[in-house]
Amino acid sequence: MKPNIHPDYQVVAFHDTAADSYFIIGSTIKTDRTVEIDGNTYPYVPIDVSSDSHPFYTGKQKTVSTDGRVAQFNRRFKNLSTAKKAD
């Protein structure tokens, strides 16, 4: 390996601001901010989404059911087709 070409690997505190949780993970990201957690000082990086707040991982995902054109047609004209059969 060539010396002085690789970024510094360090332990970083990522803060999920949506879920207000911290992840202490090794990373090469650079930041000027620090945070103290459990008596240790870590470089601090705020993030918007993590596995603690993303709907896919939390189980709060909303599924949108989009019917096809045939289902929309049948739903729209269901009353007309039953009315003609009764005549």
Describe this structure in words.
This protein is of the alpha+beta class. It has one domain. Helix content is 24%, strand content 30%. The protein is built from three helices and four strands. It has a four-stranded mixed β-sheet with strand order 2-1-4-3, with no helix packed on it. The protein is elongated and about 75 Å long. The model has no long low-confidence stretch (mean pLDDT 82).
Secondary-structure topology with pairs:
Elements: E1 10-16, E2 21-27, E3 34-37, E4 40-47, H1 55-58, H2 69-76, H3 78-86
Parallel strand pairs: 1-4
Antiparallel strand pairs: 1-2, 3-4
**Could you spell the SSE succession in H and E letters?**
EEEEHHH
Oligomer: single chain
Strand content: 25-35%
Number of domains: 1
Subunit structure: Part of the 50S ribosomal subunit.
Organism: Pseudoalteromonas carrageenovora IAM 12662
Protein name: Large ribosomal subunit protein bL31B
GO biological process, one term: translation
Features:
single chain, Ribosomal_bL28/bL31-like_sf, ribonucleoprotein, ribosomal protein, Large ribosomal subunit protein bL31B, 87 residues, alpha+beta, 3 helices, Ribosomal_bL31_sf
